[in-house]
Amino acid sequence: MLACAPLGTQICASRSPAARQFSLLAPQDPGGFRLTIDEEIVAEHPDLQPALEQLARNLMVHVANYAPDRIFVHAGVVGWQGHALVLPGTSFAGKTTLVGELVRAGATYYSDEYAVLDEHGRVHPYARDLQMRRPGSPEQTSVAVEHLNGTVGTAPLPVLRVAFVEYKESGQWNPEPVSTGMAVLDMLQHTIPVQRTPARVMATLAKMMENATAVRSERGEACGAAHALLAAMAVGESSI
What we know:
The protein is of the alpha+beta class. It folds into 2 domains: 27-66; 71-235, Rossmann fold. Helix content is 26%, strand content 28%. It is built from 5 helices and 13 strands. Strands 4, 5, 6, 7, 8, 11, 12 and 13 form an 8-stranded mixed beta sheet that branches. A hairpin with a 2-residue loop joins strand 4 and strand 5. Helix 2 (95-104) packs across helix 5.
């Protein structure tokens, strides 16, 4: 269960009165493994692994919702020449594969799942192992960034580029500019605490976009898109 905890979790000697209690109960007749939050049953699985994965998702959503000084956006993130490239997207959109190719191309790894933003709009590292999927399979395999000959970022970075990229088997890399306002609106659907603290989320995303540009494109193989994204960041082009 400890391995399911969000990155950076530490064991504490005492529990805050305001904390929520997550429990995973062993199979009970007639049920399977049971996940409860504050003693309320939220999921039940006959096998242990799906129950652990459900626990991990619920823990992460809780942290993302209640972090007092961070905003969590579903996105891959890499660093390049002192700036961040943010890749918002849902699961199965191919963002982890693209992040992996960016790291292989020399970018610094920040995250394959969350862009963690502070009040100044800078991105902090959330460098868990990459969760890579085999083509056509929902199963994930943990891959350490070292296996990609990459390095992990250690300091917050300002965002230079936001790229909304979706994998399609026959997709062609053809980026089109996205306005700042539309980029913020599109990122709202990928931001976890937007329903709890909409004003704080909007302010943080707007701050993030102050000196950033955004593009949108389909892609085929990740390698070509990765090199195009880094090349565009290197020369500071706003339209690709």
